[in-house]
Amino acid sequence: MNSELDYKKIIDLIDFKFCIPSYQRGYRWDDNNIIKFIEDIYDDKASLIKKILANNSLNKKLEKVKEDFKNDIEYCIQPLIVKKENETWNIIDGQQRLTTIFIMIAVLNSYETDISGEFKLSISYKSRAMSKEFLEFLLKMTKINDSTSIWEKFKEAKGEIEKNIDFDYMENAFHTIDKCFKNYLKQNKIEENKESFSCLLFILLYFCKFIWYPIDSDDKDEREQFAKINMGKIELTDAELIKAEFMNPNNYCDENINQVKIRQTIISESWYAIETELHKPDFWAFIPHENQYEENDKYKTRIDILFHFVLLENWIEKNKDKGIDEYINENGMKFNEEHFLFYEIKKWIDEEEKNKNLNKNEIIEACWERIVDIFQNLKELYEDDGRELEWKINNSNNNSRKKYTNEQGLYNLIGFLIYSYNSQKDNKKFITGKENNVDKSITKALKIYYEIHNILKEERCNRINIIKQKINNLVFSINVNREKESIQSIIKKMEYEGLYGDKIAIVLLLYNIILVNKSTGIGNRYNFLQHAKENWSKEHIFPQVAKEFINDKNERKEVLKVLIKGVRNKVIVIKSSPLLNYINYKYDKVYSPIDGLKNKGIIELNEKIVDDFLKEKNEVDVQSGNIENMYRMEYAKSLYLIKKSQEILEMYDILEENQVCFDENLLRDKMGKSNNDNKMNYIFKYKDVIIDYDKDILISNLLESEINKADHKIYIYLINKKMKDFFEMLSAKMGIIKNEKYERINIKIEEYYEYILNIEIENSDLFKQNKSEKAGQIIEEIKQIIKEVYDDKIKEITIYDIDIKNKIYKLIVEYKDLDEIKKVIDSDKFPELKISNTIDEIIKKMDNNNSNSKFLDLVIKISSDTIKKKIDDFFKYEYLELLNDNSMGNMTLLDAKTNGDSKIGNKPYNIKKERIYSKMKKGVFIPLSTMLVFTDLYTKSMGIKIHWLPESRVEYLNDMVNTICDFFGEKVNKR
Fold first, then answer.
1. Which candidate, 401, 539, 581, 644, places its Cα nearest to that of 931?
2. Rounded CA gap, 975 and 973, in Å?
3. Strand partners, 77
């Protein structure tokens, strides 16, 4: 159905073809229905008839007559609900009234009136074809009397036909209407003649109109519509019933006809204008109502909600000591009663008429003025977006400019209140899903309007502060002790699925609203309708579960450099460290939670402090909700991350020198010569680090990857004799180390080999058991021997300091004797050299033989592989875990669909920002604060442009806190 009321006069329907569908019963109106209908139409028309007759008006041209009496009141009939099918209109509702109108025309036409003519109005019946012919027969009737049997005349004209029940009701209606017209003329002392019947027909055709309700062709099955109408589900809306009451001429009985017409026209036109405005989606989304952000019910009248507001205001005026909750409790289930609104308005009009001795038309006008006032007030708020203030600021003197600058547009703030009230549930938690952000009940809409009504009662200069206080109470009221906790403290404590987690989305929306309110240059109206259509995710800017990690070496090093900012000579300057500064900012701390260093502003980054603090962190009960515990836990995690980042950077240094050891050109450029001394120097320099990294790596590479398998597949492997090949390879590799332990390894390997071959193949369980016991024991013995060999060899090689060797070579070149050379040799460090008997023996001992060279290559290669793996593992696992952050500094708003996009969700910051910008260009709704996050506003260095690191998080969180606190006038703690 159309959303706007349309009307059709009876004269407009004269050429129409109507059809009564088969699912409807036939014509069934009795005498009472007919008489009441005629009385309603002609109730106040006697004076008009007499005027027409006195002026002999109907002898003039019809157009002139219509012009002369155009200001007279028309009668509005209840809706005629129709659906067009080809050139015919199917009657969904209104059959009884339309058929009665047809028979009234037939009766008046039978008197051969001055305006009788060829009426082409046609009503057919799907299941009763002869009913159409019977009606057409009535239209041609002349000179009838009460005793005339129309049925007999019809049968005589048509021959033998079967009678249906419609004929009886139609014939009865014809005679009843005839009597009713004659009685009407007699009661009003109007002579019964052709002219008077002509006047009756003229009024019926030109002063009587249907409310015209066509149903679109793509609407639901008309049978379903018919069923709903007749079950009382979608008859007239309350607004339509109220309008009919307002338009009822009986309510203007003491008024001059022309004045009544003018008043009706004014109400009708402004009604239409208001209904039109309410059908604009953005404005309708601003008006509190049951389906706040839904755009369905497009055919439903929307002005109804304003009448609800009028009733609420009336009640408040009468009950000044009560509030909205009492009003809702008092009406309770009444809101769900059919036509509650219409009956309450009618009741109010009747009570006003009785108690205040007012005419109905005065009460109706007063009611309508209230509706217009409510509408205009809401419209004013809707249009109050700050643009007028901007104009005032730009066109005012300095004193006025200062005053206007402190004002703000109310649209976004009222819109935020409406959205927040709708998305807050009874448990005070906020729900961001679109299926949950609309309360379907009228009570929520009334509560929201009650708040707006109270705001509107205040002077404009006070409204902004009142709205801010309401927003503050709505969003940041946590508990009875709220007065002890500041807004900034609450924002900083918010945790995803943790403390205040349900408020994150609403606070982020508020942050957006405040930003938009200030951003006149980019449009300062927030799109609440579009916002409400989406399911919003509290998006982790640095991904909670990353599907990609940094692979590029240069990018990794840039990130690591950012993470160790503030570290100087194994000491962390807290305020210079982005990691520690971010944590201290979140928890409003200054220095460190580590005992003994609270007031120094520095932390010694040594193993003991970090390890002790990590141990304490692991014992912290974060589930208790204790803020101090959470602070210590995060601090410990950050200290570990700083220490780890330093280590990874050192690993990159080792890898670079490692590369030099195998690149002859680099060796010559960097060290001047190529020999084993350079490799030994590398191992000597990083001896502690390499041994720490690689303690088990030789074993893992040579033994575990082949022998220590998880299941009995190794048995098949051994049976295929591959085990023997492996042992030979292991022996060959270990053969580069020529000492007594080599034979022990061979013995153990052979022992293991023989033992495995004797295990029964059929008994896999026995295999697993034996493997885990005897075989496992042998494996451990082999590993221990290799460990000893490895450590001994490293010690053997690295015992010779390059500086000492260079001094000895210099003395040899200078032809110094053996005693002078021995003086520079420390007997504790180099006993083998000290006991040498000749210079040649010293030289021989210092030279690395071929086996040592191979071992050096093996150690360097293994250490390189190990370090690379450790770096990869760090960025794949620890890095992501240690930087994971559930606080507001890592949260932004993103719609679920965009966030769920595989190209965006769980991607690094630098990838996200490119793809989110692309989404925005394609028309996806991206909130302003989200766009600012992904446009490098808070990033300064290369490392944080790649990933969203604490240096960016603290800037972002600080901006959010400052923006929101400034809005509420709360002083912010200095960083």
1. 539
2. 6
3. 210
18, 88 in Cβ contact below 8 A?
Answer: yes
CB 237 within 8 A of CB 341: no
Going by their DSSP bridges, the two strands 571-573 and 208-215 should be labelled as: unpaired
Contact 933, 541 (CB under 8 A): yes
SS3 of 328-359: HHHHHHHHHCCCHHHHHHHHHHHHHHHHCCCC
Coil, strand or helix at 749: helix
For residues 176 and 34, the answer to whether their CB atoms sit within 8 Å is yes
Q: How distant, in Å, are the alpha carbons of 128, 367, 647, 734, 925 from that of 687?
A: 108, 93, 15, 21, 57
At which residue do the structure tokens 């680099």 appear?
Answer: 666
Name 835's Cβ contacts closer than 8 Å, sequence gap at least 6: none
Q: Which residues pair with 80 in a beta bridge?
A: 212
Mean pLDDT of 330-339: 84
Beta strand 891-895 pairing with 536-540: antiparallel
**What is the spatial distance between Cα 599 and Cα 131, in angstroms, rounded to a whole number?**
102
DSSP code, position 424: B
Between 766 and 27, name the one with better pLDDT. Answer: 27
Instruction: For residue range 436-476, list pLDDT tens digits in order.
Output: 555 567 899 999 999 999 999 888 888 999 999 999 998 98
DSSP calls for 482-513: GGGS-HHHHHHH-BTTSTTGGGHHHHHHHHHH
CB 103 within 8 A of CB 173: yes
Give CA separation, 173 vs 110, 146, 153, 186, 924, in Å: 14, 12, 16, 20, 63
H helices present in 735-849, as ranges: 740-757, 764-770, 776-798, 802-813, 818-823, 831-834, 839-846
Q: Is 4 helix (H, G, I), strand (E, B) or coil?
A: coil
Q: How far apart are CA 401 and CA 28, in angstroms?
A: 73
